[in-house]
Amino acid sequence: MLGRFLEFSLFTPDIQASLDFYGKLGFSEAQVGETWAHPYGVVTDGRISLGLHQQGVAEPTLTFVKPELLKHLEVLESRGIEFEYRRLGNDIFNEVAWKGPDGQMLRLIEARTFSPSKRSAIETSQCGLLHGNRAAVRGFRHW
User: Fold this and answer.
1) pTM, whole model, 2 decimals?
2) What burial letters (b/e) apply to 32-66, b meaning 16+ CB within 10 Å?
3) How do strand 4-11 and strand 49-53 relate by DSSP bridges?
């Protein structure tokens, strides 16, 4: 299992403009920590979270949390995963990424980067009902 789905990570050159845009669609901001060195924000509709990154995300990426990430790398590699990048060490925030069979970028990080939203899952946005957790994981259970 990849871990717990965290966010659909997106690149944006202007965090505030993106926060404003998604706010108009009915998304709410989540409280972020200081994990990333680059500007970062998160919006949610209560079911899926969109991570808005000013750096570090070259393409739309499904991001999962995998505690103790270093312990799981050997198993992933034994299943044929070839990492696009690895950022690993005792003094950095551990993360790895690779492309899945369909070309979708997948990323594992060691811990959450934002606080869970208090928004109710029954609240809707103008985008309709999004089921990020189930949809994101459904196709990748074999990993």
Assistant:
1) 0.79
2) beeebeeebbbbbbbbbbbbbbbebbeeebbbbbb
3) parallel
Average pLDDT of the residues of the chain: 83
pLDDT at 91 over 80: no
Give the total residue count for the chain.
143
Distance CA 101, CA 98 (A): 10
Strand order in the sheet with 49-53: 28-30, 40-44, 49-53, 4-11, 61-65, 105-109, 95-99, 85-87
User: Could you identify the residue written with the tokens 């999962």?
Assistant: 64
pLDDT average, residue stretch 24-36: 88
